[in-house]
Specification:
By secondary structure, the protein is mostly helical. Helix content is 65%, strand content 0%.
Length: 353
């Protein structure tokens, strides 16, 4: 039972390290593309209905006016330029209170909301019908109370941003799965091959279990947040240092490469008629199918995220610790020789009995 548990701990540890690598890569790419700001801008555009036509002579509230407001532009390192492409000057996050103050400033045309005689008449000046109806509904719900109206605006914004956050998470998850599959193939992280190696090689299995236990003990208490502290190169180096058959340098991986037919050969009739269904070709197809399955398993496992695999690793290590016999608590520690006296030592409790 213990070897099987060790294999499970080993593969879970691999999934954890690989998840850290993929997550770090995904965060770097999404950060470079500034996708949080892009999704936020799209969410604001939908919220303010900026793409709708504004009636002539009416008050126009557009997303570019909102992003140029001082309350919002101060949240970004650079000022928003509506003529510039991309997300330059668009913040990644806007607090609900800042949204409310900036929007009210635009609605009141820079006046103090407390000094507006009738806020409903002021909202009625907005040329965008969809936005005007929404704000009027929120104001009527507040029954003319300005503080209540502000609270309604903040709730409306927060609910919309939760939806935007859902867009971003789905997109980030799709990117993570794509990167995971690409990286699994590029680095040849084949789950099936790793499990086979751990099942056969007891020394490799024991070494990996010890690495997993040390890794688990070394992590801080806030382990779910640890993936944010990892960088791509560090996690990749740790994965490569496990001693597992990862990469394309071993003989098994070379067989996959060497078994591929040359492009010019595939285009000939001789290949399709005489070589396609031979024993050798079918064997290569089988190897590639197994490898593709192993890469897919690795990629799907990485999509669960490093915190999931870290928690899973801790649980299996705890089970292994509970399931050991007393002399197996530390496999690397030298065993104490029996002297023949320990079992017959009479203790005080024994005498009392």
């Amino acid at each position: 039972m213990l070897p099987v548990l060790d294999v499970v701990i080993g593969i879970v540890f691999v999934f954890l390290l690989f998840s850290l690598v993929v997550t770090a890569l995904n965060e770097v790419v999404l950060s470079k593309l500034d996708l949080r700001a892009r999704f936020l801008k799209e969410g604001l555009s939908e919220l303010l209905q900026s793409n709708s036509k504004t009636a002539e002579g009416k008050l126009a509230i557009r997303v570019q006016d909102f992003l140029q407001h001082g309350m919002i532009s101060s949240l970004s390192r650079s000022r928003y330029d509506p003529k510039a492409k991309g997300t330059r000057g668009v913040p990644s996050y806007i607090p609900g209170k800042s949204f409310v103050l900036a929007l009210l400033s635009l609605v009141t045309e820079g006046k103090d909301p407390q000094r507006i005689p009738d806020m409903r008449d002021q909202i009625d000046k907005i040329g965008n019908e969809s936005l005007k109806k929404t704000l009027l509904a929120l104001y009527d719900d507040a029954e003319g109370d300005l503080d209540h109206f502000k609270a309604n605006l903040e709730n409306w914004f927060n609910e919309s941003m939760e939806r935007v956050g859902g867009w971003y998470k789905r997109y980030a998850q799709q990117c993570l799965l794509a990167f995971a599959l690409l990286l699994a193939i590029t680095c040849n992280v084949d789950s099936i091959r790793i499990i086979q190696s751990l099942s056969i090689d007891s020394k490799l299995r024991e070494s990996l279990v010890n690495q997993a236990a040390k890794y688990s003990d070394a992590q801080p208490a806030d382990a779910p947040a640890m993936e944010k502290l990892r960088n791509f190169k560090g996690a990749l180096a740790e994965l490569g240092g496990t001693g597992l058959p990862i990469g394309w340098n071993d003989s098994s991986s070379q067989r996959l490469i060497q078994g591929l037919p040359q492009p010019q050969t595939v285009l000939t009739a001789e290949f399709w008629q005489g070589h396609l269904l031979t024993h050798k070709t079918l064997g290569i197809f089988g190897l590639w199918f197994t490898a593709l399955t192993g890469w897919t398993i690795t990629a799907l496992a990485a999509s669960f995220g490093a915190p999931f695999w870290f928690d899973t690793l801790n649980k299996f290590i705890d089970i292994r610790g509970v399931g050991r016999a007393p002399e197996e608590k530390d496999p690397t520690a030298p065993k104490k020789k029996a002297t023949g006296k320990e079992s017959y030592t009479v203790t005080a409790s024994t005498k009392s009995e």
